[in-house]
């Protein structure tokens, strides 16, 4: 009962099927290698991201200054005070004679970061440094979205003003339309 199908030409179809099977095998091996490289890149990227520390002013958690940390610790509890806070801390400046006279903001970093330009006016009889600001971002209708803080380590001389241009405050919501920055703390220089 041998039908002798090879005489009819069905042998060509068998060869085509074998070639197709080889092509599928090569494609799956190539896809597997690509997937392996993608997985390795994700693992390396996550490892680098975990090693990079947060900057003090760009995290979403509220920033606690060294002065506030020293005041929060009990006077007799020396273990609670960090070595940085145990050093002589400069007295806090009077904020009533320190103000922001003008401010603007714009988007940077593909529209996700806020760059603030403002002028700090110091009417005190002493210079101030480590000026801490908080910028509150709102929608067009006034609904609050996010608030970001930043500590500026520059010194503002006595009876003068200093303009800080395009200071990166942090990531903001895409819907943010308005910003209002205010001074939180400063130290005598």
Brief account:
With 189 residues, the chain is α+β, with helices and mostly antiparallel strands.
SSE sequence, one letter per element: HHHEEEEEE
Count of structural domains: 2
Strand order of the largest sheet: 1-2-5
Main sheet specs: 3 strands, antiparallel
The CATH topology annotation of the largest domain reads as Immunoglobulin-like
* Structural class by helix and strand composition: alpha+beta
How many strand segments?
A: 6
What is the approximate shape? elongated
Judging by the overall fold, what is the CATH architecture of the largest domain? Sandwich
Give the percentage of residues in beta strands: 25-35%
Task: Give me the number of helical elements.
Answer: 3
| CATH classification, class level of the largest domain | Mainly Beta
Distance between the termini: 105 Å
| Fraction of residues in H or I helices | 25-40%
Low-confidence stretches: 55-63, 76-87
- Radius of gyration over alpha carbons? 31 Å
The overall average pLDDT, rounded, is 76
Keywords: Membrane, Transmembrane, Transmembrane helix
Transmembrane segments: 35-54
């Amino acid at each position: 009962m041998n039908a002798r199908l090879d005489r009819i030409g069905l042998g060509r179809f068998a060869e085509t099927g074998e070639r197709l099977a080889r092509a599928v095998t090569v494609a799956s091996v190539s896809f597997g290698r690509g997937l392996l490289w993608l997985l390795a890149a994700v693992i390396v990227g996550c490892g680098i991201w975990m090693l990079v520390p947060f900057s003090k002013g760009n995290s979403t958690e509220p920033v606690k200054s060294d002065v506030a940390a020293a005041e929060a610790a009990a006077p007799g509890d020396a273990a609670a005070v960090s070595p940085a806070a145990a050093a002589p801390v400069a007295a806090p400046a009077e904020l009533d004679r320190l103000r922001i006279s003008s401010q603007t903001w714009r988007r940077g970093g593909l529209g996700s970061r806020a760059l603030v330009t403002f002028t700090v006016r110091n009417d005190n009889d002493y210079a101030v440094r480590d000026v801490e600001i908080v910028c509150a971002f709102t929608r067009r209708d006034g609904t609050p979205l996010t608030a970001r803080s930043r500590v500026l380590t520059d010194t503002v001389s006595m009876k003068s003003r200093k303009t800080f241009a395009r200071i990166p405050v942090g990531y903001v919501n895409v819907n943010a339309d308005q910003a209002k920055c205010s001074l939180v703390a400063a130290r005598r220089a």
